[in-house]
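Per reviewer request, we include the raw input and output of the structure prediction for the construct analysed in the revised manuscript.
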Amino acid sequence: MPRILLSGFEPFDRDTVNPSWEVARALDGWQVDGATVQAVRLPCVFGEALERLDAALAVGERPVLVIGLGLAGGRTEVTPERAALNVDDARIPDNAGRQPVDRPVVAQGPAAYFSTLPVKAIVQALRREGLPASVSNSAGTFVCNHVFYGLMHRLATQAGLQGVRGGFVHVPALPEQAARMPGMPSLGLEMQVQALRVLLQTALTVQTDLREQGGSLH
């Protein structure tokens, strides 16, 4: 059966839980439109995260879809990312103490890659289900963007992965995490899992993205 590779991160920055991994783990083995989800847990470490992703890509049949999940603690919506930048510029150290500054993810690589997911159709589908969502135009410059760019570079340059669609999605903090930030709305794990079910089905079935407003002023 075709597989969907869905990655999430281990906790970082003093958190004890990372919803990106909890969502991916909850969906491991779930079947949608003839494909099965395979979850992989990535270390929140520059370099090592991509090594773990490479190992998952190399095992079994080539995936039909590869999506990375990450935590965006300051956001309140599920946010499919539009573009990955070829830069590591860490505001805080990763889980191995690494803190690269102005370093390319891939030396001599393109400045950026666009997601090949139908990000606007995904947002529309999520909103139709009453789930908060919006397009994001920045995945940051920490390990999430590192994995996003590294993934898209692999999909664009490795012969065995040609035609595989991929991208990255940020999820918000869980209620127990948002409790430390008074006034910050949160999205529970059950709703985040439901959002990813809708997202995966949309990504599999929509080949041409919508042309509608999805930008931001800043």
